[in-house]
Amino acid sequence: MSNDWVETSAKWAGEMGFIGENAKGGTVQMGTVDGKPGVAPMEMLLLGLAGCTGVDVVHILRKKRSPLKDLEVRVRAKRADQHPKVYVEIEIEYLLWGDLKPKDVAQAIQLSEEKYCSASAMLGKTAEIRSTYKILPPEETAND
After folding, report:
1. Which of these, 43, 85, 119, 132, could form a disulfide with 52 (CB 3.0-4.6 Å)?
2. Among 57, 50, 56, 125, which Cα is nearest to 93's?
3. Is residue 49 domain-shared with residue 19, that is, in the same domain?
C-alpha cells in the first residue's frame, strides 16, 4: 500500500454548490453556484471512471503504435432505489477515431477495465460494468 495521501477539499459556495480543489490547484464546480449548474458529485465519479479508463486506453494504444486520432468515453449509469443509492449498473461506450485494429482496441479496453483503472475496480464492487466500442473513420473526429 502506498503511504502517499491524495488530498482534496470542497468549499461550500452557497445554494447547493461546492467548489472542489486538489492540492495542485485544479478546481471543479459541483452543484449549483450563482444559478449556474455544475457537475453533481455522483456524476464526478462517472467522469473519473471515463477519464481513468480513457487515459489507460490512450496509453496502451500508443505503446502498440496504433494510429489513434481521437477518443471519447461516454458513461451512463443506474443507481439503486434505496439509500445510499450507489451505482448498480454502468455502461461505458468508447468512440475511437483512427485506422485501428479491433483486436488492439479490445485488448486496450480489457487491460484498462481489468487491470489498470482504479476507478473501474472500485465502482465494480457495487455495479455491473459493461462496455462497448466503435471504431470510426480517422477523418471524422469528435473535435471537428
Report:
1. 119
2. 50
3. no
